[in-house]
């Protein structure tokens, strides 16, 4: 079977790295990189570090609004799909690249398989939520991270086949976290000690594109009572520089600004932090796996299981709520919510069984 994998941004490189190896053991994979994330530290470093084979096609479509980016991706993907003639188009997560890949595949009459199907924050103002819903309804095979995701899909009456395979990001995290736990060099680089600092990431449009929200985000980070390592996503870095708010962070002794980090370095900080403050989807899940309490800088999350089990708290940008969350003790129990680290194998088995 010929599988066209359409990917374009950081979390998708992590997820595709998990699936690519078992997939290539039995099928032919063609990787199309849309170019949504093009900086080396958001893209090339993940291919190198996680052993993801180099893309066969690079579409170089970045920048612009969600609509214009998705439209250009669709127009560029159409002839690529016609030339490759895949048996399946495989997409991951919830970005413009996911939507364009799924729609271009479905419109070409090629079955689409969606990894991380059925996740819902139930907040349609998030561009990612709109993408998730649309992609799931265009897909023939819906590969879910959890039972809750499968329930969401059944409730929505999707027409594709639903399979709970577990979460492929967990496969990668379970492989890398023991190695990360044993390292501490990166902690010295940022002058922080195990259990005594917070790791923070923020790049959602809702937090960084709107100047008053960005300012609230900065105030929240300035109010954290422990050292904060803050690897800046390029979008956030740019917004902070344009607004001048970056100087407030640079002047704060407890804030350690960093460039976007490689996966192993980032995971090392995640495993050793007292808490993670984030608006990322993937990081919420990885924090749960690492046993690091998560404070989510959003009003909603699609990773609802982490909330129910007490490892994650939604604080949006409320400083008092963030401080209260930091004071909370971590729960004693941590169940395997998103599979056992073998989701990629199951995803490939499902592809072979249902679409092969
Ligand atoms: N990540 C990384 N370096 C960083 C920040 C994040 O390697 O400086 C990894 C993180 O471990 C996770 C993924 O990037 O696997 C999450 O990406 P992002 O937050 O961009 O995407 P989201 O999950 O929010 O869609």
Q: How would you sum up this structure, described in words?
A:
This protein is of the alpha/beta class and 356 residues long. The protein folds into two domains: 2-167 and 340-355, Glycogen Phosphorylase B (Rossmann fold, 3-Layer(aba) Sandwich); 174-327, 3-Layer(aba) Sandwich (Rossmann fold). The chain is built from 17 helices and 13 strands. The protein has helices at residues 10-26, 44-50, 66-84, 96-107, 127-138, 147-156, 168-181, 185-189, 205-208, 211-222, 234-243, 246-251, 263-272, 281-290, 304-308, 319-327, 343-355, and strands at residues 2-7, 28-33, 57-58, 88-92, 112-117, 141-144, 161-164, 198-201, 228-231, 255-258, 275-278, 294-296, 312-314. A seven-stranded parallel β-sheet has the order 3-2-1-4-5-6-7, sandwiched between helices. Strands 10-9-8-11-12-13 form a six-stranded parallel β-sheet, with helices on both faces. Helix 1 links the parallel strand 1 and strand 2. Bound molecules: uridine-5'-diphosphate. Uridine-5'-diphosphate binds next to helix 1, helix 13 and helix 14.
Provide the structure class: alpha/beta
The fold-level CATH name of the largest domain is Rossmann fold
Q: Helical element count?
A: 17
Strand order of the largest sheet: 3-2-1-4-5-6-7
CATH architecture annotation name of the largest domain: 3-Layer(aba) Sandwich
The total strand number stands at: 13
Query: Residue-averaged pLDDT, rounded?
Result: 97
- What is the number of independent domains? 2
CATH class of the largest domain: Alpha Beta
Instruction: Determine the fraction of residues in helical runs and give it as a percent range.
Output: 40-55%
What ions, cofactors and ligands are bound? uridine-5'-diphosphate
Q: Radius of gyration from the CA trace?
A: 20 Å
Query: Which residues sit in consecutive blocks of at least 5 with pLDDT less than 50?
Result: none
Q: End-to-end span in angstroms?
A: 6 Å
Judging from the principal axes of the Cα atoms, what is the shape?
A: globular
Sheet bearing the most strands, described?
Answer: 7 strands, parallel
In CATH, what is the homologous superfamily of the largest domain? Glycogen Phosphorylase B
Summarize the helix and strand pattern as letters: EHEHEHEHEHEHEHHEHHEHHEHEHEHEHH
Strand content: 15-25%
């Amino acid at each position: 079977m010929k599988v066209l994998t359409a990917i374009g941004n950081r979390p998708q490189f992590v997820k595709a790295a998990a699936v690519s190896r078992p997939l290539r053991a039995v099928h032919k994979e063609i990787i199309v990189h849309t170019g949504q994330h093009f900086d080396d530290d958001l893209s090339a470093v993940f291919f190198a570090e996680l052993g993801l084979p180099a893309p066969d096609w690079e579409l170089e479509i970045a920048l612009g609004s969600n609509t214009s980016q998705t439209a250009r991706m669709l127009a560029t993907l159409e002839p690529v799909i016609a030339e490759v003639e895949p048996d399946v188009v495989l997409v991951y997560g919830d970005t413009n690249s996911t939507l364009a890949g799924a729609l271009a595949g479905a419109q070409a009459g090629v079955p689409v398989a969606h990894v991380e199907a059925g996740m819902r924050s139930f907040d349609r103002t998030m561009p990612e939520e709109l993408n998730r819903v649309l992609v799931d309804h265009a897909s023939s095979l819906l590969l879910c991270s959890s039972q809750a995701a499968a329930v969401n899909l059944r409730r929505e009456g999707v027409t594709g086949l639903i399979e709970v395979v577990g979460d492929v990001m967990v496969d990668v995290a379970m492989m890398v976290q023991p190695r990360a736990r044993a390292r501490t060099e990166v902690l010295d680089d940022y002058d922080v000690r195990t259990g005594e600092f917070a790791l923070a990431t923020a790049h959602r449009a809702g937090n960084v594109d709107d100047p008053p929200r960005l300012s609230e985000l900065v105030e929240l980070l300035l109010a954290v009572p422990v050292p904060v390592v803050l690897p800046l996503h390029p979008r956030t870095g740019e917004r902070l520089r344009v607004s001048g708010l970056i100087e407030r962070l640079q002047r704060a002794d407890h804030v350690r600004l960093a460039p976007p980090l490689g996966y192993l370095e980032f995971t090392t900080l995640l495993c050793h932090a007292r808490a993670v403050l984030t608006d990322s989807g993937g990081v919420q899940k990885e924090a749960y796996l690492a046993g690091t309490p998560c404070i989510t800088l959003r009003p909603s999350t699609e990773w609802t299981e982490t909330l129910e089990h007490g490892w994650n708290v939604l604080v949006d940008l409320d400083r008092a709520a963030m401080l209260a969350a930091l004071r909370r003790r971590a729960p004693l129990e941590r169940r395997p919510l998103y599979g056992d680290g073998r989701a990629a194998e199951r995803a490939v088995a499902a592809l072979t069984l249902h679409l092969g």
